[in-house]
Design a protein that fits this description.
This protein is of the alpha/beta class and about 400 residues long. Helix content is about 30%, strand content about 30%. The chain has helices at about 15-25, 45-50, 60-75, 75-80, 105-120, 130-135, 155-170, 215-220, 285-300, 350-360, 375-380; strands at about 5-10, 35, 55, 95-100, 125, 145-150, 155, 175, 180-185, 190-195, 200-210, 225-240, 250, 255-260, 265-270, 305-320, 325-330, 335-340. The structure holds flavin-adenine dinucleotide (FAD).
Length: about 400
């Protein structure tokens, strides 16, 4: 039997695989593109388990520019992804992101703010008095100030994923529910993929878009990626106090955050250094009770009285090298394209990254050069950190 041949195969059909396929088909509808996804229900895909927040508040210029492009695209995303007149329903809610900072981290926050403002971002500094006046649930003990980005916000990640997926298929991409067993290669050039069914598909380009499973897949092409799948939990609580106003997505200096679902219902999370590595999705209520609750009450005293509603867990693909995305062709394996290691901020990057990878595959000059995130930096041991050695 002759192998099916494609121009490009997306190994993993989460938001990165589907966004890249969309941009490929949009720019060149003659291309043969396959999206291979091992679970079309997306039960464990990070995309659908994410908090789906997007923010301009990064320190690295390219990360900010990726978010600026995301905002531009989100303005018309629902309409752009319409198939047969049915629009996507992203429900983008620009409630703003508020990053509170303590004295120790204030200089870093202000340096980031300056970069953002120089790039024209609508982000401002709030004093402790302004924080208290605007957000009465919060305490400003030990708080030096905050940065507030009014255009940041949250949305329905499933709607974004389905938007890209359905539109890519509409434009001609093929969606295949199957598991990629290995990326095949010969003499330093990718030749395609072999599925667990033993079927082989040929392609000059294979994108590793396997999210938390990326390291396993890259190994089949002889490539070691510094990426661990790490379980992150999100807990839902309802506080006793009636909350009438809409709070921004709020981050506290310890790394704990909350996002108001509606009224008095909040979801909250925090990354811990010893979060389990592996494919663990089992949440533990005690993580909230013993490791997060007191921290939260310290910053927002009204969280003292609450009802615990539940939790979910998903995987961060943690780039242990520098916490940033790893994008582009692997230097020693022609045709092996990477969209990996997004850690906690990949969902919002799907627009810029999808466009960039499609440009690299098509061999055209990228509109936004993301070469700073090339895997070459790992081989040269030149990490690009967001803040002082900070993994985000
Ligand atoms: C709790 C949580 C909160 C988050 N919050 C945010 C946030 O607020 N903002 C933000 O920007 N980011 C956030 N993230 C990160 C974000 O979810 C990810 O960076 C992003 O979704 C990665 O997309 P992806 O397509 O690479 O991965 P995924 O969505 O995981 O997609 C990868 C796909 O590949 C498939 N796959 C794997 N191996 C194979 C194989 N061998 N063959 C075929 N298919 C395969 C999987 O089934 C999966 O569907 C969060 C993540 C978590 C877990």
């Amino acid at each position: 039997m002759k192998n099916k041949t494609y121009d490009a195969i997306m190994a993993g059909g989460g938001v990165m695989g589907c966004a890249t396929a969309y941009y490929l088909m949009l720019e060149d509808p003659t291309l043969k593109v396959a999206i291979i996804e091992m679970d079309a229900t997306y039960e464990k895909s990070s995309t659908v388990l994410s908090d789906a927040n997007t923010r301009l508040q990064f320190n690295i210029k390219e990360n900010i520019e990726i978010s600026q492009y995301a905002l531009e695209k989100l303005a018309t995303f629902d309409k752009d992804m319409a198939v047969d007149g049915v629009k996507a329903k992203t429900a983008f809610r620009q409630e703003g992101n508020l990053f509170l900072t303590d004295a120790k981290n204030a200089a870093d926050a202000k340096a980031g703010l300056a970069v953002q403002q120089n790039l024209g971002c609508d982000v401002k500094w709030l004093t402790p008095e302004e924080i208290l006046a605007g957000y009465p649930l919060l305490s400003v003990d030990d708080i030096a100030g905050a940065t507030f980005g009014a255009l940041d916000g949250t949305m329905d990640p499933h709607a974004v994923l389905m938007g890209f997926k359905n539109k890519a298929i509409d434009l001609g991409a093929e969606f295949i529910e199957a598991e990629v067993a290995e990326i095949t290669h010969e003499a330093g050039q990718v030749t395609g993929v072999k599925l667990t069914s033993d079927e082989k598909l040929s392609a000059k380009y294979v994108l590793n878009s396997a999210g938390g499973w990326a390291t396993k897949l890259a190994k089949t092409a002889g490539v070691d990626l510094p990426i661990n799948p790490v379980m992150r939990q999100v807990h839902i609580v309802e506080i006793a106090e009636q909350v009438e106003m809409q709070y921004p997505f709020t981050f506290f200096p310890s790394g704990i955050y909350f996002s108001q679902e509606h009224g008095s219902r909040f979801m909250c999370g925090k990354s811990f250094d010893n979060d389990p590595i592996g494919f663990d999705f089992v949440t533990n209520r005690r993580t909230f009770e013993e490791r997060m609750w007191e921290d939260l009450v310290g910053h927002a005293p009204a969280f003292d009285r609450l009802k615990y509603i539940g939790a979910w867990a998903g995987l961060y693909a943690v780039n242990t090298f520098d916490g940033n995305a790893i994008l582009g062709e692997y230097p020693t394996m022609k045709g092996l394209m990477l969209a990996n290691g997004f850690s906690g901020h990949g969902f919002q990057q799907c627009h810029g990254v999808g466009r960039y990878l499609a440009e690299l595959i098509r061999g055209v000059f990228p509109v936004l050069n993301l070469g700073i995130f090339s895997p070459q930096r790992i081989l040269e041991n030149k990490p690009v950190f967001e803040g002082h050695g900070k993994l985000v």
